[in-house]
Amino acid sequence: MLNFALRRLSQLLLTAIVSSFLLFVVTEFSPGTVSRQILGPYALPNQVAQLDEKLGLSQSLPRRYLNWVSVLVGLKANPLGDPALGLDLHDSRGERYFGNFGYSLMFKQPVRDVLGEPLRNSALLGAVAMIFIVPLSLLIGILAGANAGTRLDWSISSLCLIITAIPEYAAGVILLTVFVSYLGWLPGTSPLLASEQWSVASQLVLPVTVLALATVGYVARIVRASMAETMTKPFVRTALLKGLSKRQIVTRHVIRNGMIPPLTVLLLQLNWMVGGVVVCESIFAYPGVGRLLLQAGLFGDLALVQTITLLSLAMAGVTQLVADISYVALNPRVRLT
After folding, report:
1. Domains within the chain, CATH numbers bracketed
2. How far is CA 192 from CA 76, 205, 224, 242, 277, in A?
3. Torsion sign across C-alpha atoms 218, 305, 282, 118
4. 45-59, pLDDT tens digit by residue?
5. Which residues cross the membrane (predicted)?
6. Could you tell me where the beta strands, DSSP code E, fall in 60-200?
């Protein structure tokens, strides 16, 4: 188990290095530069070039990447914090520390200070949504997979396909029209500020419903396919010949063996819940990371975009590592590979 975990960790580290370099390259060649953001759209080219020189942006791409990583791990100070530039950017943690993601030019604050509350809000939304998504998708998928080829399976699969085909923005508009405009049962926005009319819990209902609709059908179909395939395995026929009931076979043997492929899908939903819910958070004005990513992209805040993307990549890698280790617990044969 230890060798297995170390091997996966080394692969994760290599993936992190490659993905961070690709992210840096993409953002470096995106329209606009940090100097242009600071000086404004009407700055003269020679003024932009002078500031590029001060910030080290005129160096080669590999050198700029090493400088960026050095600031991130705390080996160098962020040049934007230099008082000589007159940008009035300060970090209470000091000039050098591990996890220095730089400064947000949109908020004129360190990125870590900007991300704190949106991360907590997105984590809250994701946690509440997963409380409903996991049991619903597993129950629906297991029920359909255990009865593969029957009318019940066909009905469940068709319903899941229909729900999955509905885009997030369409589901949000439909829910807003019905429950806000027509019935008036729920608030139309989710600022997470309690008022006399709407509690914080009521503000979470519509965003959580949209996320559940976008995810349950997809995950349930993955569970259904894995369960249906597992039901055709020889050990299921052996259990039937031994006299075990279908319910005993499903609960004791099929579920454990059939949950290995859906496990990765469920874990990857955690990453999507934090950084991939841009549409949902924008529709309901939810103050999370997804909405912040959209705002940063529209403004051209490269440091904020880079940081949110890095966090999403890191979370995807960690969830994949957890899934790989979980495979060993669910299927001991994985240890041999």
Report:
1. 47-100 (no CATH), 116-290 (1.10.3720.10)
2. 38, 12, 36, 56, 16
3. positive
4. 777 777 777 777 778
5. 123-146, 158-184, 204-223, 265-288, 308-330
6. 103-104, 109-110
